Amino acid sequence: MIRARCATRHQLSNQFLAEAIVVSLIAIVVGMGLAEVLRPTFNAVVHQELEIEWLSVETGIGALALALMVGVLSGLYPAQIVARLHPVRALSRKTPQPGRGWLGRGLIVVQFALSAVLVVVAITMARQLDFMRTKDLGFDGDQIVLVAHKGDLNPLQIERLADEIKSRPGFVQGVTGAWPAPGFGGFSPMPIRSDENVLRTKPFYVSPNFLSVMGIEVLSGQGFDPNRPHGVLLNETAAHFFGPEDLIGRTLTGPNDEPMTVIGIVKDFHFVDMRHTVGPAFLTTSPLISKPRSRQTDQFKYTLFRLDRADLPAAVEEVKALWKRVLPEYELWRVLFLDESFAARYWEEQRVGVVTGWMSAVAIAISCMGLFGLVALATVRRTKEIGIRKVLGATTSSVLLLMSREFGWLVVAANVIAWPVAYFVLNRWLAFYAYRIDMGLGWFVLAGVGVLAVALATVSSQTWLAARTNPADALRYE
Questions:
Q1: Which one, 112, 209, 421, 476, has the greatest CB density within 10 A?
Q2: pLDDT given for residue 98 in this prediction
Q3: Whole-prediction pTM
């Protein structure tokens, strides 16, 4: 009608661009309002305090520039298409449909491809995080608490705590001292030498009952012997380096050139996070072997308690009461479960995973809205075809299948594009972890099926109305 009233192509293009920019400006304002409403929730999820200065000049210029860019990009193509329409053809309802809407379909494929990538990434990140949190640490981390306190303790003070535990049986089953403790600081790796080789190992100065309290398994040999103060225990990694077959009873040269006799081999236990492999380590009750010369005291920096699983909260309170009775002069700072301490190291991964999950949900929602509009346009264009099919005996289910097959292939194509991209991204990300999951094709298929199901539900919701329409209404003017 506008072209019929002598409007020029330039005027038509300007009108469509102006309408697109106005819609974009409205969308920016609505988006800013939603961002402010959802900001507290976002801050709670990512544990950050994000502040946005909506009234600043920078924010205003950025929002205006974004609205103009989106408006121009979204309105330019339809403006050119409409401007080229011939008035007679447009009014005769014989407007050609060039390309069968390949631009819209291509955009749908891109949107769903991005959605599928985000879904696969979110699922894989959640699986990797769960794997790191639940992987066996090599000790009973869920029963061990580390007490952070002021000052260091000596072996006699550890014994006083142990005697108090024995005299008052309860939820606390044992206590031990260590420097360092698994996951907490310590000295740099120190060299152990045999006649042929040198290996830098992580030293642990511990109480004699460290293995029993921590639940660390002795694979061969024996635990600590008070009659052998220079006896050491090697972990599996260190033992494999020196050759575990004839290692028990062998004398090595330890740090500070002190002789050390291997009395046992213990199962590998994690003393760093899952980003790193378990390195070589040795345990000893002698500070002469495990500490640099400038730090050779019998002090323990960390105190660890073994608790009864029956009532862990009560056991923690019992530890605090025990500490105040026996060592009131040492200020108690906090009580940490070792497994929770290791899990807390993956807080950044958890935050990114949650944000990625929300992003995938938003991306799917936006993709479905675009698909809904495309399906609505397609059903309007094919109203006569659907009516003829219904007259010829087509059922509602066959019409649904027809439309679902047409648009379902778009989502399948999106998954074909998304999977290699997701695999590349995840493979690079998982390379940062020494212990990682196998991505597995099944999870890619599961994510793809989920995205496809959501897309087909969107198609069916719109197609169902067209399929249920009376054919007489569709063909009334034909």
A1: 112
A2: 45
A3: 0.80
Which is nearest to 70 in space by CA: 113, 17, 32, 111?
17
State phi, psi for 284 to the nearest 5 degrees.
Answer: -150, 155
Predicted confidence (pLDDT) per residue in 324-366, tens digit: 999 999 998 888 999 888 888 888 888 888 888 888 988 998 8
Same domain membership, residue 228 and residue 171: yes
CA dihedral 220, 221, 226, 231 (to 10 degrees): -90
The b-or-e profile of 367-394 (16+ CB within 10 A means b, else e) is: bbebbeebbeebbeebbeebbebbeeeb
107 and 91 in a single domain? The answer is: no
Angle value at C-alpha 204, between 174 and 211, nearest 5 degrees: 35
Sign of CA dihedral 413, 418, 421, 423: negative
Structural domains counted in the chain: 3
Inside any domain, residue 297: yes
Domain that holds residue 350: 99-136+346-478
Tens-digit pLDDT profile for residues 240-279: 998 867 789 999 998 878 889 999 999 999 998 888 999 9
Note whether 440 and 452 are same-domain residues: yes
List, in order, residues 6 or more apart from 458 with CB less than 8 Å away. Answer: 368, 371, 372, 375
Parallel, antiparallel or unpaired: strands 281-284 and 198-206: parallel
Report residue 474 as tokens. 């569709």
476 and 365 within one domain: yes
* DSSP run (H or E) holding 15: helix 9-46
- In whole angstroms, give the CA distance from residue 49 to residue 318: 36
Burial of 415 per CB tally in 10 Å (0-12, 13-18, 19+): buried
DSSP 35-46: HHHHHHHHHHHH
Residues 28, 477: Cα–Cα separation, whole Å? 42
Backbone φ and ψ for 148, nearest 5 degrees, come out as -90, 125
